[in-house]
Amino acid sequence: MAYVEVGRLLKPHGLKGEMKAVLDLAFSDMETFFIERAGSVEPIRVESIRDGTNGVIVQLAGIETPERAREFAGALIKIDENKLPVLSEGHYYHHEIIGLEVISTTGEHVGTVADILDVKSNDVYVVEGNGKEHLIPAIADVIKEINLTKGTITIEVMEGLLQR
Fold first, then answer.
1. Coil, helix or strand for 54?
2. Integer Cα distance of 83 and 20 in angstroms
3. Structure confidence by residue, pLDDT tens digits, 53-109
4. pLDDT digits (tens, 9 = 90+) for 144-155
5. For a Cys staple, 7 with which of 23, 46, 79, 136, CB 3.0–4.6 Å?
């Protein structure tokens, strides 16, 4: 079975073992998450997911105290790749974007997407290349094309966007 990372458990929330988490999408109907920690992946039943401030609050089966929840802080949340919902055109999962080559509209190679930062207004792609790190906002004025088949993202380089 192939797993796809869809989020991360952050820290305990309250006294009943709930945890703050960040998720790429709303997975309120998921029955099971696969939690990766210390190099191993284990299935854990999802008892509840609700909206929280800057993320969600999850209750996982068998985690009933803040102390037990703390053991899972930082763990990756994964799901079976075959259970990913199909996204509308122009929307992508993080795992589809990470690793893409970034080029400018003039053909300049900028680098490779190494990570994605979740900020309130939009995602920000962390692009590494030529010994530099660039923070590229995922907005229409900058991102001109994402081509998963070619493995590229074409960007419009605005003044001050790239470190020189």
1. coil
2. 23
3. 878 999 999 999 999 999 999 999 998 888 888 888 888 888 899 999 999 999 999
4. 999 999 999 999
5. 23
How far apart CA 78 and CA 95 sit, in angstroms, is 11
Which position has the higher pLDDT, 141 or 161?
A: 141
Six-digit token string for 123? 């995602």
Supply 14's token pair: 């309250």
- Residue 28 pLDDT class (50, 70, 90 cuts): low
- Calpha distance 134→45 (Å, rounded): 38
d(CA 117, CA 150): 23
Name the 3-class secondary structure at 29. coil
- Which residues are paired to 43 by β-bridges? 34
Q: Taking the mean position of all CA atoms in its chain, how far away is CA 134?
A: 18
Q: Which domains does the chain have, with CATH numbers?
A: 3-83 (2.40.30.60), 94-155 (2.30.30.240)
- What six digits make up the tokens of 161? 């966007």
For every residue of 60-74, DSSP letters joined together read: ETT--SHHHHHTTTT
